[in-house]
């Protein structure tokens, strides 16, 4: 039986992930046999899995291996929806960073260390961050500093510091710098007041300087025989934890921060909309729902009553952050808040544009919610209705979409400072445009408002 | 190691190691002193009326 390569998994000589018939496996190569066995035998694996920090796996037969290099094959628990650091809110990135450091500290306690600290080794499952790279551990060598220190600073600490001290939108730099924001760039972008904070001075400013200063040298000549004790390394990790924890961001001051309290819905309208959404989703029998423009996830939570997984996308970092804080505080499973600009969605990235999947490649969803959204796309972004329909069809088999007419106060607000150049933006125009790509199964007006809710299914199979 | 840790990052850790060791010891000393006083004067710090 043939195996399917996962294009993003090729850098690590110790093993790689691939699929067979849709199931994910990880091959452990012969070269990594000893560290892997030692890792399992040490009790570290059991401890991390027991505390929900690492994905559990099952060892399976070698006949399921991909190549002859295999020493063992494991089947890790599958992640329901893969997301990337540039799609995470501040809090999600912060928690992923703290998870990495917590794991490193526990590893050191058992004489192991993380071989890398890539943010892509962390995924969100059941509302919490978890390490997915089971092969990330190797025995700790006395005196050796942490190989993954620079990677941690560039992938976690620096982006978080920029988001906290400069502007939360600096997080989008992670989309350009897949290996993390370069230390020298970050050091230049950080405000002067960060030079007063010892943690930032050490891990970022001095670190950036050291990289430049020692660029051409070998470690032995530069270190002149000195080494780093395990205790010093643990102190470094704890210091990093303190630095990460100390970073704060008030999830406010962005355009949509106050939407939920500030919109034009009456209680009756909200309730009617909610009930309709739930009944349509029940009809759709959806397992995975994508809620586009979800804001703080009010309707995602309604969807959650019916579907086990709701990915709650929004453009606004404050909205995503608030959504995530609620997930964390109430320990909700099955809701994954993520940052997404639908007019410029996450593209395929990395080598050959294949290491990180685009949004569409991670679908399709069973059902897509597009509530209080269409007017922003059609009027706010001048997108023709037919183009919107075409793209939405690629995202999921069923669509629950709210039509917001021009008489609605939110649309009037959009048209305040510009001429109305949207003659086709009417209920009929909307239905016509969408009928090209969807079959309109049913529709209903939302109580106390002039909006309509539609339940549609894709006309053609998703391409 | 399969990622490039880069010389500068390794050197920084080693250079910082001395300071970090001192910090670790200082923390241990501080904790020990705190503990000593907690044990020595367990109830003295309770003001009347304070919970």
How is the secondary structure organized here?
The complex is a heterodimer of chains A (463) and B (51).
Chain A: E1 4-5, E2 15-20, E3 23-29, H1 33-41, H2 44-50, E4 57-60, E5 70-76, H3 90-109, E6 112-114, E7 122-125, E8 128-131, E9 137-139, H4 149-165, H5 173-176, H6 183-189, H7 198-213, H8 219-223, H9 230-246, H10 259-262, H11 267-284, E10 288-292, H12 298-304, E11 309-314, H13 317-329, E12 335-339, E13 365-370, H14 374-380, H15 385-395, E14 396-403, H16 409-414, H17 427-435, E15 438-445, E16 452-458
Parallel strand pairs in A: 10-11, 10-13, 11-12, 13-14
Antiparallel strand pairs in A: 1-2, 2-3, 3-5, 4-5, 6-9, 7-8, 14-16, 15-16
Chain B: H1 7-40
Can you describe this structure?
The complex is a heterodimer of chains A (463) and B (51). The radius of gyration of chain A is 24 Å and the shape is globular. Chain A is built from 17 helices and 16 strands. In chain A, strand 10 (288-292), helix 12 and strand 11 form a beta-alpha-beta unit. In chain A, helix 3 runs antiparallel to helix 4. Chain A has 463 residues and is of the alpha/beta class. Helices cover 38% and strands 18% of the residues of chain A. The relative contact order of chain B is 0.07. Helices cover 67% and strands 0% of the residues of chain B. By secondary structure, chain B is mainly α. The mean pLDDT of chain B is 79. The A-B interface holds A 11-14, 115-116, 145-151, 153, 202, 206-207, 210-215, 217-219, 222-223, 226-229, 231-236, 239 and B 1-3, 5-18, 20-21, 23-24, 27.
